[in-house]
Every structure is written in structure tokens, then in C-alpha cells.
Amino acid sequence: MLDAIFAIPGMMLILGALAVPLLPPFVRNYYMLALIAFSGWSVWQIAPGVHMTANLAGIDLILVRAEAITKPFALVFHIAAALNVIYAMHEDVKITAMAGLAYAGAAIAALFAGDFLTLFIYWELTAFTSVFLVLDGNTARSMGAAMRYLLMQVASGVILLAGAVLLWREGAGFAITALDATTPAGFCVLLAFGIKAAFPFLNGWLQDAYPEASVTGTVVLSAFTTKLSIYMLALCFAGLTPLIWVGAVMTLFPVFFAVIENDLRRVLAFSLNNQLGFMVVGIGVGTELALNGTVAHAFAHIIYKSLLFMSMGAVLFRTGTAKASELGGLWKQMPLTAIFCIIGAVSISSFPLFSGFVTKSLTIGATAKEGYFFVWLALIFASAGVLEHSGIKIPYFAFFGHDRKFKVKEAPLNMLIAMGIAAALCVIIGIFPQPLYALLPYEVKYDVWETGHVLGELQLLLFAVLAFVFLIVRGLYPPEIDSTVLNTDWLLRRAIPRVVKGLAMPVLTLWFGAVAWAQKTILTIFRISEETSRESGLVSGIASTGAAAGIFLAVFALMLLARLFM
Amino acid sequence: MMQHLPILQVLLPLLGAPLAALLRHRDMAWGLALLLTGAAFLISIILFSQQQMTGETLVYDLGGWPAPIGIVYVIDAASALVLPVISGIAFVATIAARRLVEAEIDARDHALFYAAWLLTIAGMLGQVTTGDAFNIFVFLEISSLSAYALVAMGAGRDRRALPAAFNYLILGTVGATFYVIGLGLLYMLTGTLNLVDLSDRLADVQSTRAAFTALAFIALGLFLKMALFPLHFWLVPAYAHAPSAVSALMAATATKVSVYVLIRLVFGVFGIDFPGLADAVGLLVLTLGIAGAFVGTLAAILETDLKKLFAQSSIAQLGYMAIGIGAMSATGLAAAFIHLFNHALMKGALFLAIGAIAAQVGRAGMGTIQGAGRQIPLTMTAILVGGLALIGVPLTAGFISKLYLVRALLEQDFWLLAALTFISSALALAYVWKIIETAWLKERPKGAPVLVETPVHYVPAWLMVIATIGFGIFASPLVDAAYAAAHVFIGGAR
């Protein structure tokens, strides 16, 4: 019984997290690392197929089932979990250590869920554990963001459950298989995944909550939830063509926001969204090459995105701010952090010889191969955008730019180690992609080192760098001089809101009016019932005996009348 | 001996009652009550496993007179399932009762308390076992009259117990009277009181207006007894002001027995095809059930007294059982049986744990439990798990209840009702969260009385908590038994 429970991947971490608050700080971290290592080792042994089923009240549950794409995700989730522990070693916060470990465990367990009910439980568990990481930001803003975050996450879970029940109702059972998004059930599931994968218009929670978490919390958050959703999308909706366009939009629109955003961790949150877009496109294309691309990209992405968040976290930790307008010139004080950040930046911008290049190329190549010209164009443009905001903007404003003469030390050793490992992985994957390719669900026949491709990528990168240099030199770059960006983003910031406002004002007035009215009514009902519940009343159930007998007779009459008229 | 088990299990507590009163010594009276409820529990377990193994209906002819002339006791899949619930809760509540009674009731009344205690248990067991409609009324009155007395015994500590008991007495009597009037009509129509016989003979006269009126009288009387909204006025004050032991026993069992009797009479005697049953009565039960689920939950959110809070939530939970009945299908009835079983466990655990607090500080209010999570973690955790089960969190028994309830509703395409059931369950989170926040997240105020763990309360409470979780994970035996019980009344596939 007990060994069966521990045989569920991730369960070791979820249950092991319970012991975390009991341990002294210096044991705690090594305990967690050992737990992750052991869990990683045991998960590594799991071959594709169904491994554990259970029957709950007549419903067949598939507790452990691995697909071809499960292993790379499980592996990288373990790597991320370990990095998170190392990165947070200087802290002594029991609640986030515990929540972080359980969160990773829940995400890993969810990867192996074979039916929607099991998935639902882990899906909600990731929400409820991760919200503690946002709450740990310990500011009024993070409190609000955490509640909004939880609302969206739980909503996603509830929609997922609704979809699962609909599926069951259709007679399809609860098993996680390829779904038809045009049925109500499929659509519900897609919507639930879409919320957690931060589809356009469902993405607000991500940029809202992630940057509000603590230094270490953001790093943990960035790894799991969204990639779990990508994984599930790949299982259920591979080859769903509309996803290509959804993904393309996802790659594009965060670029604009990221360029004008001042908080560097929020810039990274936008760029995270943009990266998810690439993966969604890959799922939408759905060919072997594209799915390989999605999986590989998710793998590499978790590592370099963690690296970037870690470096910005280190900056925030030392200087107390992550705002572009307040930072600059840190390379003197924090040279190692700067180097690691640059490695992360060039990885995400897919410079050849870094991990982003060997993974993102697969997806872009797949769109080209399948003839989605405009999507291909959008992805190329988005790649340039990534370089713009993540590749150059982040290191430039944090470590170079205006020297703000900070008197700070280099990041703590444990942070440097975590960043160092992540950076090393970025480089190793970039130079020797074969082991990663071997993990992928399908054989990789694509030659990323093809001369034309490398040259094209370099050209693209050079022009993007050129554009940035041009903008900086001419003083046109947004955070430096606000007024000059009117040209480009006026549409985004002014015109569109104005038009939208004009159109939406009546609707919104009506809506908020209705909401206010409903709130007032509910409050009135509550107040009245509270007043009446003091001594007597319908709600409290303490009516006088006579009144109760009267109601009794009324119900009796109702029943007899119902018979007469029915 | 073995063939007399059906009668023994009612007879033991019934005869033990005067004996307990005569014993006068409180510990001896308690010991007797413990012994007899334990014996009843054991017997019911034997009967249940016997019934499960053979799958047959065991009919016991009282005094050797066969039906329809004599009174028979019937152990079928339905009564075999409900009996262990009643006697098991009675047994566990009796274990905890000693300390609670010592704390709350005048020492001179203890022997009388246990006499009434045994009587009410005998009455409930009798209602479940008997196969005679008038015998049901007799046992209904036995259990009710002693229950009124038990509630009134709370007066030593809380004078409001007296009006509560009076209110309960008047309304309970109205309910019982309605039941017996309905029975009178049936007797007039058919000339028999045996349930099986009644069912046979009723078929000839089922389209008469008198037959439907009988149904209306009986159903309404039982609605009141099971505290279906809006006929629940007696329940909250009675549970809130009664001695804690009584709250625990009654909250877990009393209304359930009425639910069972309602199912037995409406489906066993009138039958699912009775004209007007599915539409008029079914619609009414569904409407009142879902309304009760919302009203009870909302009222529970507003309450600050824990006993009242969970009494209000009982209204909601009974609403869910009513929805199961109102679905008028085998799955619906099974869901009602499952919830009947599970809810008895949850509410038993909750009221025992609350009793542990009330016995120490007099009143288990939100103020009393502030910050109590660290002081009495075991007791508070029992309340927490019970609360989570009420919401229907997965891995608790409550989830299984809700799952089958929603399934029954979806089978009939009651989409709106399924959604409303879902929403009202989610609302329950509000009052559970209120408790979590008060007990665990707030500091204990300075100068608040120090609460201590009392094993005699938390051990029985935890027995039920563990059962709640156990039946949440390994639900299939219960589900099978519930379906078997449902199939006694309505045929149909699983």
C-alpha cells in the first residue's frame, strides 16, 4: 500500500514536503536535494505505458502512465526543482521551501496522470501550493496578485473538471487521450489548459503574479505550471491547426509589452509568455518535427528561463529593485551574475552554440516545412523581439547602461552555483544537443547546423542588435525617454484603449452597474438574514412554533395543489 | 439465538432503558448503555455481513405470527446498510458521552439521561428494522419523545434548551400526527398495515384521491422529521442547545432514520410508478432540497456558534439527500444512501469534537476556538477534516457522495440542478475556511481559557474521521451496498 503510494512519481516530493518544516535549516536543503535526486532516479526508470491503476467508486483511474514525451518533461522538472532548492539555500523560509517542493511534486505527478480526475487533483494541488510562493512576496500588491492568481488557477481546474465530466457523460471515460476541441468537453479541457498555458487574453495572471513573488519564488513559479499545461496540450491537442495561430499571436504580442515594461522581472514574464507561443505553435503543427521542437524547446526553455529569473532575482536580492530605470552598471559589482545572465540571454535569443538555438530551430523549421509562411514570418519576427527584450534589454539595463554606482556584493554562493549549473546546461545542450535529441519522442532528422540556417540566424540576430544599438544611440529606447515612443506604441497605449473605451464604456457601465446592484442585493440579504437570525427567522431556523406550523401547512397545500395541476 | 438477532438488536436497548433508570448509579448506567449499544452494533454488523453474503431478505415474525397478521422485522439490503450506521454512531457517541454528560448535566439526572438515551436509540433501530407501518409510528414516537427529553436536559447549562425542546416537541408531534393520519387513510383504503401487503393492495386504488392524500400526509410528516427545508425550524435550536452528547448522536442519526423511513414508505409502499409521485412529489423534493442546500449553507456561513453552524450545514446536507431522493432513480437513491452513511460519519466526528470544546468552555463559538489549532491540534484537525468532507473534497467520503449525486442528476439530464449542487458545495468552503482562519491562522488571544486535548472525545471523533477518509478512498464496498439498498426500491442498472 505505502510503497504503491510512493511509486507514484512526484508523490515522494509531495509527502516528503510535509517533513520539511520539522527539519533544521541546514539539514532541510540537503534532505530536499536528496529527495529530488531519488525521485528523479526512480522516475527515470519508468518506461512508457500504464503502470498503476486504481478503482475509485467504480471509476477506473490511471494513476501512473508514461507517454513518449513524459520523460524529458519529468527530467527537466526534476532539474528545475533541484536548481530551485540550491538557489534558495541562503533563505530560511519553511513555508516556501515546503510549498515549492510540493508544487514540483504535484507538477511531476500530473505529468504521469493518465486520467482527467487524477490530473484534476494535481492540477489544483499545483495551484494551491504555488500560491504560497506568490504570497511570499509579502507586499500588498503580491497579496492581491496572489488572490487573482489563485482565482485563475482554480477556475482552470474547475473548467477542467467540467470538461472531464462532460467527457464521461459522452461515454468516453476519463482517460487522457487526443480530444476533439469542437465538442463541448474538448473545448472545456482546451480552455482549462489554455488558462494555465497563458493563451492570449487568458494570460493576465502570469505577468500579474510572477513578478510579485519573492526573489526565489518567481524562479520556482517560472518552471512548472505553464510547461505542465504545454505538456497536456501536446498530449490532447497535437495537430489542432487553430493552435498555430493562437501560438503565433502569443509569440508576438508580449514583445511589445516587454519592450515598454520597466520591471525587468515582468519583462521576463512577458518573454516567458512569448516562449510558450513557440511551443503552442509546435503543438498546433503537430508533425513529428514540430512536437520534437515543442518538447526540446520546453526542456531548454525551463533551464534558461530559470537562469534569467535567477539572475534578476540575484540583482533584486542585492539591490532591492528590478526596475530598469533604477538599475545599471552592475557588472563591476556582480560580474559572475552578469556573465550567467548573458549566457541565459544568448540562449533565449537562440545564438548558435547555445541551447535555444538547437531547440527553437526545430519548431521554426517545422512551420517552414509545412508551408505556414506567415506563421514562420511571425516566429522569425518574434525571435528578433526575444533578442530585443530578453537578450539585450535585460543584461543591458541591469549590468550596463547608466552606471548607478551601487555598493553591493556579488550574489550569494548558492545562487551563483545554481546559476552556474543552469548556465553550464545551456552551453552543453547548445554544443552537444544529441543527448537531448535522444530523449525526444521522435527521431531527429533535422540538421540544425546546416550552413544556411546558421547564417540566417546570425543575420537575424545581428540586425536585431543593430536595431537596439540604433535606438539606444538615438535615445529612442522606451524606458530612457518616455515621450519618444509615442510613435510606436501610441496605438497600444492610447489609441486602442481610447477606441475600446468608447465602445466598451456603455457595456462596462451596464456591467459594473449590474455587479454593484447584485453586490448590494446580496449584502442586503445577508444583513437582513443576519438581523433576523438573531432570534427568529427563516434562515436561522428559529421561527416561532406557530409560524413554523403555518409554513408546514403551506408546503402541504403546495404538494396537494401540485398534484391537481400536474 | 442467531435467528432472533433482528429483534434482539431493538429489544436490548429498549429493555435496557428502564434498567438504566433503575440502576440510578451514573457510571453503571453508562456502562450498561455502552454494553447494550456495543451489542446492538455487533448484531447489526453480523446482520449486515449476513445479508451481504446471502443477498437475501431476512424476515423475522414477531411472536411467530407471520405477515400480514403479525408484525414482521425485515432485514433487507436497505435496512442492513442503515442499521450499522445508527448503532455504530450510537456506540461511539456513548463512549464519548460519559465525560460530556458529567460536564453538562446535573449528576442526579444521569441515570435518567442514559435511560432516555437508550430509548431514543431503540426507537431509531426499531424504525429501521420493522416491516409494519404502524410499528414505525410507535418507534418514531419512542425515539422522538425521548429525544425531546434529552434536548430539554440541556437546560442545566443553557436555559434556551427548554424553548428549543418545546418547539421540537410541538413540531415533531405535528409531523408524527401527519404521518399517522396518512397511515389512517391507507388503512382505510387497504385494511392492512404490513408494508409489503400495503404495497400490493395499494396498486388497486392508487388512482384515488385518497391514496395521493395519504402520500402527501405521510411524506410531509417525514419531511418535517428529516428537517427538509423549510420544515427545519426545530432542528437548529434543538441541536444547538441540547447537551453535546445528544447533539452528536442526533445530528448523526435522527434525521437519517427519517430519510430512510421516507424512502421505505414512498418507494417501498407507494412505488415509483404511483401517480403523482414522480412529478408532484419529486419536483417538490428536488426544489426544496436544492433550496435547503443553499439556505443551510448560507446560514452556516453567517453563524458564529459552531454547533449552530454545523446544524445549519446539516440542513444543507439533508437537502442533498432529498435531491438524491427527488431524482427518482436507482442512482439517486444510492446517492442518498451513500450520503446518509457518509454524512452520519462526518457529523458524528464534528459534533464530538465540538462537544470536547463545549464541555470545557461551555460554548464552542468562533471566539472560543480562536487560535485553538495549536492548542488542541487533534480536536481541531478532526473538525477540519469533517469540514472538508462536508464540502466534498476528493479523498474524503463527501466527495463520493457528491460524485454519485451529480451522476444521478446528470443521468436524468438535470444539468441546472447538477450545477447548483456544485455551486452550493463550493459555498460550503466559506464556512470551513472561516473555521480554518479562526482556529489556525489567528493567534490565541491573551487570557483565553487554555484548552486541553481530551482523548475520550478525540479518539471516538478520530475513529469517524478515519472512517470518513477510508470510505473516501475505498468507496466501492459502500457504493455496492448502497446500490443494493437502492435496488430494493427501484430496479435498474448501476
Order of SSEs of chain A, N→C? HHHEEHHHHHHHHHHHHHHHHHHH
Task: Please state roughly what percent of the residues of chain B sit in beta strands, choosing from under 5%, 5-15%, 15-25%, 25-35%, 35-45% or over 45%.
Answer: under 5%
Spatial extent as radius of gyration of chain A:
26 Å
Secondary-structure content class of chain A: mainly alpha
Put simply, the count of helices of chain B is 19
What does this molecule look like?
The complex is a heterodimer of chains A (566) and B (494). Chain A is 72% helix and 3% strand. Chain A has 22 helices and two strands. Chain A is globular. By secondary structure, chain B is mostly helical. Chain B has a domain at 298-494. Chain B contains 19 helices and two strands. Chain B has helices at 5-23, 26-54, 77-104, 110-129, 133-152, 161-190, 195-202, 209-225, 235-241, 244-270, 277-302, 306-326, 330-361, 372-375, 377-391, 397-411, 415-441, 455-473, 476-489, and strands at 58-61, 72-75. Chain B has a two-stranded antiparallel ribbon with strand order 1-2. In chain B, helix 3 (77-104) packs antiparallel against helix 10 and helix 6 (161-190) packs across helix 9. The longest helix of chain B is centred in the C-terminal third of the chain and has 32 residues, at 330-361. The radius of gyration of chain B is 21 Å and the shape is globular. Chain B starts with a helix and ends in a 5-residue tail after the last helix. The interface between A and B is large, with 32 and 50 residues.
